[in-house]
Design brief:
Length: about 625
């Protein structure tokens, strides 16, 4: 496809949504209202689904980078006649700083073109396609702007170069010279929201975005002082960019339907919020941002979950807490690299995934000092989740990888039910009475016995993906990370060796035997396990390998092809960046323990994010 590889894209964000811009200067993805809204540019999924390109007319090479401590992207194009820079930014509200950036962003995409050397003939192509490429709106010139409206979406484009306007696209040609600046600003508004979109000057948008992002970065600059600080800070900014600021929810990825395997059909919509990610997200924010960010996350989840009933706990939500995320196919789109179906919504919301019970209680345990005094609604929530884990841990479920075939007794789900009950027992009288704690303790201990017996496979010398199974699964690496077993336990150590030997290639760890690519967070789980086992040098080498697998802007997709090294899956992926942050923290702690500077934390999982790493 003309839209290029996944790795060619940069990521812009404004606290409500994201845009993806490729190395050739084309905006190939933008859903202006919010992350999971219909797109106006979706060339990433079909060449006909809309884009906005600004690039040299002649052959060129390009180099790009983010302006320091921002998500403002600068691409330098070099041709045979000169060079030119294009700076891209999604607008942040003027004067917003620190935690406030993105709360009221104006939904404006700005592109600033600056001549650097020589003369460079440039071309602009503007082809908005509304509703995931279904609708081509008429474009109308008025008051020096180009307006296009379809349904409840209105776009207005302003430029300081002449544009040729057709029925549904606009083009322009101009020449960039040293000292010249060309401005392009595209604003969004709801059609019936009472007015045209705001279209400020591009240079002001860029300046405000730089100031806003740097204010957030400055607020957290000294938060993490461990190993790989630059990579951790970059990943923290990416995670912040995937935050829907009005609610504090963090989406799993900015895109839908980028395939796990080219030409395959595992093409899911990841623009939602998973409870599974919750505990890990809080750990990452705790390390690389600050407790205020983690507190917002916990508050959002508590509000979204409400009371726990007899039905399965919802495992994912929309960014404002929506539960019905019913999935449907966009049959008019060809898909990335002809990978169909293209899906909107995600039917995993209907599944039973018992591991999420552990994610919530583990996160609460991390936040325990900020939950004192504990509000009655949070107390009831944690109590009910613990009861749910005690009642339902014996039931099969769809597991951490959201299998869409048969429910099974997945080991990771059992371990996370153990984690839920272990944290509930630690909370004790803060969330339950004496009888509750006794019941939770008995269920926790029974789970442990079952996992140690039915999860172990003597023939393989490893814990397997499900009870009484012969199939390896990298998700068992969470066992030491949630405190179920120490990483240097002989059986756990054997499991780590077998999983690495059978599922890993060049540092990339697949989830299971026929998984088409390495799963980034699984690889970072292995780093964390090795660090916890005291193999710091080996963990450090593996971390360095993985840290080099980002694209040129420091961005990860969900997976990386073990043969080609190409990223696959939705992009950028919060889970991958969260995995990097946590692995860096655990590696730092392990190195300090070996050096005798800190003692091993006596309590498991999220409680082991020590102050020493952060200060």
């Amino acid at each position: 496809m003309d839209s290029g590889r996944i790795a060619e894209h940069g990521f812009l964000a404004d606290g409500h949504t994201a845009a993806l811009v490729d190395r050739a200067g084309s905006v190939n993805w933008w859903c202006p209202p919010r992350f999971d809204a219909p797109s106006v540019f979706a060339r990433l999924l079909d060449d006909r689904a809309g884009h906005w390109a600004i690039r040299p007319e002649d052959d060129f090479t390009s180099e790009r980078s983010y302006l320091d401590d921002t998500l403002v992207l600068r691409t330098v194009f070099t041709t045979g006649t000169g060079s030119v820079a294009v700076t891209d930014a999604l607008a942040l509200e003027p004067d917003a700083r620190g935690h406030e950036i993105g709360l009221r962003s104006p939904r404006v995409l700005a592109r600033l073109v600056e001549g650097l050397t020589g003369e460079v003939p440039m071309r602009m192509e503007y082809q908005p396609r509304f509703e995931y490429g279904r609708v081509s709106a008429y474009l109308v010139e008025s008051d020096g702007q180009i307006h296009g409206t379809a349904g409840n979406c209105r776009l207005s484009l302003r430029a300081n170069v002449p544009l040729d306007v057709g029925e549904s696209e606009a083009t322009g040609r101009f020449t960039a010279r040293p000292g010249t600046t060309h401005h392009f600003t595209l604003g969004y508004a709801e059609t019936y929201g009472g007015g045209l979109p705001a279209v400020p000057d591009a240079d002001q948008v860029v300046a405000d975005a730089v100031t806003g992002w740097r204010s957030w970065s400055d607020l957290h600059r000294d938060q993490y002082q461990g190993r790989y600080r630059d990579q951790v800070r970059r990943s923290a900014i990416v995670v912040q960019g995937m935050t829907y600021q009005p609610s504090g929810a963090i989406v799993a990825a900015a895109t839908t339907s980028l395939p796990e395997q080219l030409g395959g059909d595992r093409n899911y919509d990841y623009r939602f919020v998973w409870l599974r990610d919750f505990s890990l997200t809080l750990q990452a924010l705790w390390l690389a941002a600050c407790p205020d960010e983690a507190n917002r996350q916990f508050s959002w989840v508590a509000r979204a979950m409400g009371r726990i009933g007899d039905d399965p706990v919802p495992i994912m939500y929309g960014v404002q807490g929506e539960r019905d995320l019913t999935e449907h196919a966009l049959d008019h789109l060809t898909g990335y690299a002809d990978s169909r179906p293209v899906l909107v919504g995600n039917d995993a919301w209907r599944q039973r995934q018992n591991d999420v019970l552990g994610a919530v209680l583990d996160a609460a345990w991390l936040m325990r000092y900020y939950l004192d005094p504990m509000s009655p609604d949070v107390r009831h929530l944690l109590h009910d989740i613990a009861d749910k884990a005690a009642r339902e841990w014996r039931r099969p479920d769809s597991g951490i990888w959201e299998a869409r075939d048969t429910e099974r007794h997945y080991l990771s789900s059992k371990v996370q039910c153990w984690s839920a009950l272990d944290r509930a027992v630690r909370f004790g009288s803060r969330i339950g009475d004496t009888d509750d704690v006794a019941r939770w303790t008995a269920a926790r201990d029974e789970i442990r016995r079952e996992v140690l017996t039915r999860g172990w496979n003597d023939r393989l010398g490893a814990y397997t993906g499900a009870f009484d199974s012969d199939n390896l699964d990298a998700s068992v690496l969470i066992m030491p990370l949630v405190g179920f077993l120490p990483a240097d336990d002989p059986r756990m150590r054997s499991t780590m060796d077998v999983v690495e030997r059978r599922l890993s290639r060049d540092g990339l760890l697949r989830r299971w035997d026929d998984d088409p690519a390495g799963f980034v967070i699984c690889s970072f789980w292995l780093v964390s396990c090795l660090a916890e086992a005291g193999e710091v040098d080996r963990a450090d080498r593996l971390f360095a390998q993985l840290a080099a697998r980002v694209n040129d802007l420091g961005l990860y997709a969900e997976q990386i092809d073990q043969t080609t090294g190409e990223p696959v899956g939705n992009f950028p992926q919060a889970f991958s960046h969260i995995g990097l942050i946590i692995a860096a923290g655990r590696l730092t702690e392990a190195a300090e323990r070996l050096a005798g500077r800190v003692e091993r934390e006596p309590v498991p999982s999220s409680t082991a994010t020590t102050e020493g790493v952060r200060r």
